[in-house]
Design brief:
Helices cover about 40% and strands about 20% of the residues. The chain has helices at about 15-25, 40-45, 70-80, 105-115, 135-140, 140-150, 170-180, 190-200, 210, 225-230, 245-250, and strands spanning about 1-10, 30-35, 50-55, 85-95, 100, 120-125, 160-170, 205, 235. Helix 3 (about 70-80) crosses helix 7 (about 170-180).
Length: about 260
């Protein structure tokens, strides 16, 4: 399976180029592209050639409110996927989601093969009837419920799912189905993406603890913990904010 890896970031040009340089050093055989949602002048100064500018105000608002993946996924599909049939999977991850191993693509591909899921994510599970705050926000949202009734192939169009969205994997078919919806309500992405893909007929599955053990909502991962994760053979860590530490991470021992 050929995987396209999408770094979603809003950082300044120097920080993004350092991030891409780190990723290419960690996994030289992997393909990384940048979806930049920061200042346009920073985007234009990026040295990495495979990049796109994400002009989406929902990504620039207060955290955990209205952030949507509509524009990002549409733009990634248009720029890098639609005309390239070799791309069979897309991994979208935020700037503070750190890749630690060269072979990080292999367990994601294996999990997708084993589960048959179109979407893989952290705690990607059903949230219907729970007290997850995004479910309670949207469980009676008229626009979302009507949208799901219009597109759902499931028996119950009111079921909702959720995930932690800092790093998630999509199959090509799931991405194409997502961008093929002609109009989508602006709904928080950590709920909307798994929910709508379920209703479009795709399986959604959780990335298990052994692979995402060190991916969490908060608190931030300090450098000493990150280096310990690398020594222990961990694949990913989140949230790690010290982007000036890439050189130290690269030379640290790992699996």
């Amino acid at each position: 399976m050929t995987q396209l890896n999408v770094l979603l970031t809003h950082q300044d040009a120097a920080s993004v180029d350092a991030n891409v340089g780190y990723l290419r050093a960690v996994a030289p055989a992997a393909r990384f592209v940048v979806a930049h949602g920061g200042r346009r002048e920073d985007h234009e100064r990026l040295a990495h050639p495979e990049k796109l500018f994400v002009d989406d105000e929902t990504l620039r608002g207060p955290p955990r409110t209205q952030q949507s993946y509509h524009v990002v996924l549409q733009a990634v599909h248009e720029a890098f996927v639609r005309a390239d049939p070799a791309v069979r999977g897309v991994y979208v991850f935020e700037w503070d989601h750190i890749v630690l191993r060269e072979d990080f693509e292999a367990p994601l591909a294996a999990l997708a093969e084993r589960t048959g899921a179109g979407l893989l994510g952290k705690t990607c599970v059903e949230r219907t009837g729970t007290n997850w705050h995004h479910y309670t926000r949207y469980r009676r949202d008229g626009a979302l419920l009507e949208h799901l009734r219009e597109h759902s192939v499931r028996e119950d169009p009111t079921r909702m799912f959720g995930m932690l969205g800092n790093g998630f994997w999509l199959s090509r078919d799931a991405l194409e189905a997502y961008v093929g919806i002609p109009a989508r309500p602006v709904v928080y992405g950590e709920l909307y993406v798994p929910t709508v893909l379920h209703h479009l007929g795709f399986g959604v599955a959780e990335i298990p603890g052994d692979l995402y053990r060190h991916v969490r909502y908060e608190p931030a991962v300090p450098l000493d913990e990150l280096l310990a994760v690398k020594r222990a053979g961990g694949y990913f860590a989140h949230p790690f904010k010290a982007l000036g530490a890439f050189d130290r991470i690269l030379v640290a021992p790992g699996a």
